[in-house]
Specification:
Layout (H helix, E strand, L loop, with lengths): L22 H4 L4 E3 L41 H9 L7 H11 L4 E4 L6 H15 L15 E4 L3 H14 L6 E5 L5 H10 L4 E4 L1 H9 L10 E4 L2 H6 L3 H9 L8 E6 L4 H10 L4 E4 L3 H4 L4 E6 L5 H11 L5 E4 L3 H13 L5 E3 L5 H13 L4 E4 L14 E4 L6 H8 L10 E6 L7 H8 L5 E2 L10 H23 L19
Parallel strand pairs: 2-7, 2-8, 3-5, 3-6, 4-5, 6-7, 9-14, 9-15, 10-12, 10-13, 11-12, 13-14
Antiparallel strand pairs: 1-4
Helix pairs in contact: 3-4, 4-5, 7-9, 13-17, 15-16
């Protein structure tokens, strides 16, 4: 994703601030209704495009750089690009956008933060505007013209937000659908306001299709984002079912993006795409060199004291703290709250609507600290994250790169601090091999490993209460028939 960095006031104690987004705004992230183009000429329209021209967006030519002006984009799209203050294409955009705008199939090796999302959205909107269609009365089965599938809810939401920003003057409708949200509400939007673009996770998309609310035979453009993650998460059978529901590859444009172009991904590309152009950019592990990385080696019992003191002493604007397990996220959040450090938690156990609210509050600055599992490691773009703390060393080297990549975005500086205890230290050599460099390890000063007695007693009480609640709930646990059985692939929720 491309975007300008919004600087946040220095706040070393992570106090909560007045939210910049109201609850009303938080609840409007599921469908984007941009008015038809003639509506932009209405006096007082907040999306007035009628008097804007490319002359209002001056970007000087620069050797070795491709301007968005040079791509012959419709003015409605270029206006949104200007609003976002995008000037020059990123490497992946420069290599792939001319082919996409010419209608060619293309695949790209690109990670989050490289501008790939803007690349495929610009190509989608340009094609839909170039070939408009007349929509009649809403039908029982919605027939979108463009489809983007993503492996996680968070990534789907992020793509949708980018579509709202880039398509706000286009007069096109977009919709995001995924599991964990109100099925009937999404169904009603499909029926009453048929979108031109749908962003979806595979499971919910197949649910709507199998129930007759969605018809994919009219899809002109198909995008598969993070194909490698689709493969890892077992989504490829679902993706195949979706592909077989589309027009044949000769009658659609297909785009595929992946962090790796493995043999498996290349086989999928050859099967689903026609003469694709394959673009590779520098792998993400190279970009971590721009992030200050520190490794503190200490005993596991000292982790909390170190985190508490670093949050007080570092110039923390906005921070993510990663843990490997959901229950560990919950416990650490309770300890931080007891110690007087406001935070929120983000994991697969948090209901989807609450996760969306937390992310919006994190973006706006109302929430300064989020404790998360790797659900926040990919597909989440929050500008102004100054620090990432790996409270637990990730089990996979690739996850380390995705985690610390949440900071230092858009050319800004960032700091990633990892706590390597007795167990986590064993994962460091694999991480160093993956990123191609050694990591500086040190022991924290003794003063960083202790906390005031009054805070220590509050934290101990919070831990005791959490253990008591856990054991009490386990005492009343009664397994339900079929509990623990894995649902068939087409019924899974992501």
């Amino acid at each position: 994703m491309l975007g300008r960095r919004h600087k946040t006031p220095h706040n070393p104690h992570l106090e909560q601030e007045k939210p910049q987004l109201s609850a009303k705004h938080v609840g409007q992230h599921h469908v984007s209704r941009t008015p038809p183009q003639h509506a932009h000429d209405r006096p007082g329209s907040h999306q007035n495009h009628s008097h804007w021209t490319p002359a209002d967006f001056l970007v000087p030519q620069k050797d070795g750089a491709l301007r968005f002006h040079d791509l012959n984009l419709p003015n409605t799209i270029l206006h949104a690009v200007a609003d976002l203050e995008f000037s020059y294409c990123t490497p992946i955009q420069e290599k792939i956008l001319p082919a996409l705008l010419a209608g060619k199939d293309a695949g790209g090796r690109a990670q989050t933060g490289t501008g790939k999302t803007a690349a495929f959205l610009l190509a989608i909107f340009a094609r839909l505007l170039k070939n408009p269609v007349h929509r009649g009365a809403p039908k029982r089965s919605c027939m979108p013209r463009a489809l983007v599938i993503a492996p996680t809810r968070e990534l789907a939401m992020q793509i949708f937000k980018d579509a709202q920003a880039l398509g706000k003057y286009c007069g096109l409708q977009s919709l995001v659908v995924f599991g964990g949200m109100d099925y009937k509400k999404q169904q009603g939007k499909l029926r009453n306001s048929p979108p031109d673009l749908i962003v979806a996770t595979p499971g919910r998309l197949l649910d709507f299709q199998s129930n007759g609310y969605l018809n994919l035979r009219g899809v002109e453009i198909m995008v598969i984002d993070e194909a490698d993650r689709m493969l890892d998460m077992g989504f490829i059978p679902d993706v195949k079912r979706i592909i077989y529901s589309l027009p044949p590859k000769e009658r659609r444009q297909t785009m595929l993006f992946s962090a790796t172009l493995s043999d498996d991904i290349l086989r999928l590309a050859s099967r689903w795409m026609k003469d694709p152009l394959l673009i590779e950019t520098e792998p993400e592990r190279v970009t971590v060199d721009a992030i200050e990385q520190r490794i503190y080696v200490m005993g596991a019992k000292n982790k909390f004291a170190l985190l508490f003191n670093l949050l007080r002493r570092e110039a923390v604007e906005r921070a993510l703290v990663f843990r490997n397990r959901r229950d560990s996220v919950d416990l650490l959040a309770k300890k931080l709250t007891a110690a007087g450090v406001p935070c929120a938690q983000l994991s697969g156990e948090v209901p989807q609507e609450k996760r969306i609210r937390i992310l919006e509050d994190f973006r706006s600055g109302k929430i300064r600290l989020v404790v998360a599992t790797d659900v926040a490691g990919r597909g989440i773009h929050v500008e102004g994250i100054s620090h990432v703390f790996n409270y637990d060393v990730p089990e996979e080297a690739e996850d380390y790169v995705h985690r610390i990549g949440r900071t230092g975005r858009a050319g800004a500086s960032g700091i990633a601090i990892t706590f390597a205890c007795e167990e986590g230290s064993f994962s460091l050599p694999a991480i160093e091999k993956y990123i191609g460099r050694s990591l500086p390890c040190s022991q924290p000063d003794d003063e960083l490993l202790s906390i005031p007695e009054d805070i220590a007693s509050k934290v101990a009480a919070a831990i005791a209460a959490a253990h008591h609640r856990r054991h009490s709930s386990q005492g009343h646990f009664r397994p339900r028939p079929g509990r623990g059985r894995r649902p068939p692939p087409h019924r899974r929720r992501r």
